[in-house]
Design a protein that fits this description.
four-stranded antiparallel beta sheet; single chain; 6 helices
Length: 188
């Protein structure tokens, strides 16, 4: 699949060149998304999946953000600023990571345009008012047993170490013992 433009959203403003960096995949890539609204969801990173789940509704095609606990949206996006960089899409490829929204490039990329976002939380709320993004508050979410968080915590603790357990203690203390038990049992 070829892309005309893709979007990269760090909290760093004023970049002219986007450099590859190593991430959880162990590769040095420039990461971007093919959808500018989805890209905006990554302007805030505090707690990652442990604070807010980001995805796309299968039926409507609209991106969504789900709070994992009361106040998670504010924690992750409040008092945050950043920029969405419009990048040429011709060097980016899809299908190299597990997430279909993500595209990568192995070399530095010059920014075509910088869209500064001074208040990420307000920007996301505006996208929601425009029906381009769905924000699902904690009180509105489908209640589950949070097994997906236990799964992520176990896998990521094995991959990245005990700092992941610290995040579980901080954001989801009620799941901490379940994570430890799952690890002890060799689950996932």
């Amino acid at each position: 699949m070829k892309f005309h433009h893709v979007y990269h959203s760090p909290q760093v403003q004023g970049l002219k060149i986007i450099m590859p960096h190593e991430s959880t995949h162990g590769e040095n890539w420039v990461y971007a998304t093919w959808d500018i609204v989805m890209s905006a969801a990554f302007l805030g990173t505090a707690g990652g999946d442990f604070t807010c789940q980001v995805g796309r509704d299968d039926e409507t095609g609209i991106p969504f953000i789900v709070e994992r606990f009361e106040g998670a949206l504010k924690l992750r996006y409040g008092n945050v600023r950043g920029s969405i960089y419009v990048l040429p899409g011709d060097k980016f490829v899809a299908g190299k990571t597990q997430w279909p929204e993500e595209v990568i490039c192995s070399e530095s990329v010059a920014s075509l345009q910088e869209l500064q976002v001074e208040d990420v939380e307000e920007h996301l709320l505006q996208l929601a008012r425009e029906h381009k993004l769905r924000i699902i508050r904690y009180s509105e979410r489908n209640v589950g047993d949070d097994e997906d968080l236990v799964y992520r915590a176990v896998i990521w603790t094995r991959q990245f170490g005990d700092s992941i357990l610290d995040q579980i203690k901080r954001y989801h203390p009620h799941l901490y013992e379940r994570v430890l038990q799952a690890m002890k049992e060799g689950k996932y």
